[in-house]
Every structure is written in C-alpha cells, then in structure tokens.
Amino acid sequence: MASTSDIRNGLCIRYNHDIYKIIEFLHVKPGKGPAFVRTKLKSVTTGKVIDNTFSAGHKIDDVRVETHKFQFLYNDGEFYHFMNTEDYTQIRLTESALDAPGLLKEGEVVTILINTEDQMPLSVEMPASVILEVTHTEPGVKGNTATNATKPATVETGAEVNVPLFINEGDKIKIETEKGTYKERIKE
C-alpha cells in the first residue's frame, strides 16, 4: 500500500477493478480546505484515460512492476510484436498498450512494464525522443519565415507531424514522443 505522497508519473495502481498507469499528476494545496492530488490515469487494459482526484493521505494500491528492454519487431495489423533483448523471448501487445504507436519504428528499443504478480505486460514506454525520416512534405514557401509557421510532414512510420517550413523530404528529424511534436533537424 502506498499513499498520495508516493504518486509519480509511470506509477501503476489498482483502481476500480483495473490497473491504471499515472500519466500526469498535480499536488494541490488550496488556501482553504485539505490538500489533494489531481491525476490523469490511463487504463493499461483498454487505453482509456480518466481524470481522478485523491485526497491527501489517501491509500492507493500500487502494483509492483519490473521493467525490461524489448526491441520492436513488426506490426501485423492487430498486434505489435516485441522481442526481449536479454533472453530473446517474444511477446505481442495490442495497440492500446502503446503510448505513441505511430512513432514506433522497426528495430526501436522500448521499455515494457511487466506486472510481477502474473508476468503480464502492462504498458510500453517509448524513449524520450525518436529520430525518423520525412517521407512526404510540401516544399516551404520562401520568405514565409517571419512567424513560427509550420507545415504537415509524413514520417517513415506513417505518422504526421507539424514541422518548420525549412524541413524537406529525406531530412531526419527528432520527434518528442510524449507530445508527438517536432524537436530538431538531425544533420548527418
């Protein structure tokens, strides 16, 4: 058993007969009344995100998890297949277990949280950023750089990301996986 002071991003808890992963939290101490913790919880079984508020000191049932490095192999339409980098065992997960499936490139190494009680995979944590190649984007208009203008670009995984006007097809860009936003262009 843990309490609200143990809440952190990535913590898995048992709540409403399901296992949820905390993806966002905020400790609030109003001037009047008791403190509380506002959280965003993502169900590891359905992928549904809910908002919940816990009063300060509330007991929460945390789930003990282990992290393992897995390499993404391929997606067959229904399942995403991963291989453990230590013992080469393979697992398959549904798309709802992934935070950003559109940014997952074959060969990418991710961290998978595994419930220690039943050895079931709970969720996939992507690296903080990924480097992907732009496969399609419209050419930028010269002289239109006074504002922070962006244009849509399709990357090699099929995801669409807004990029600055100077990005062209074939450029490699770094994308922040948490928000799915452009970070920088990678020079080779």
TrEMBL record:
Biological processes per GO annotation: peptide biosynthetic process
Pathway terms, separated by semicolons: Protein biosynthesis; polypeptide chain elongation
Biological classification of the source: Bacteria, Pseudomonadati, Bacteroidota, Flavobacteriia, Flavobacteriales
UniProt KW keywords: Cytoplasm, Elongation factor, Protein biosynthesis
Family: Belongs to the elongation factor P family.
Gene source species: Salinimicrobium catena
A GO term from the CC aspect: cytosol
InterPro entries documented for this protein: Elong-fact-P_C, NA-bd_OB-fold, Rib_uL2_dom2, Transl_elong_fac_P/YeiP, Transl_elong_KOW-like, Transl_elong_P/YeiP_cen, Transl_elong_P/YeiP_CS, Transl_elongation_fac_P
Alphabetized GO MF terms: translation elongation factor activity
Domain Translation elongation factor P/YeiP central span(s) in chain numbering: 67-122
Occurrences of domain Elongation factor P C-terminal (ranges): 130-185
Protein name as it appears in the record: Elongation factor P
Main location: cytoplasm
Subcellular localization, as worded in the UniProt entry: Cytoplasm
Role summary: Involved in peptide bond synthesis. Stimulates efficient translation and peptide-bond synthesis on native or reconstituted 70S ribosomes in vitro. Probably functions indirectly by altering the affinity of the ribosome for aminoacyl-tRNA, thus increasing their reactivity as acceptors for peptidyl transferase.
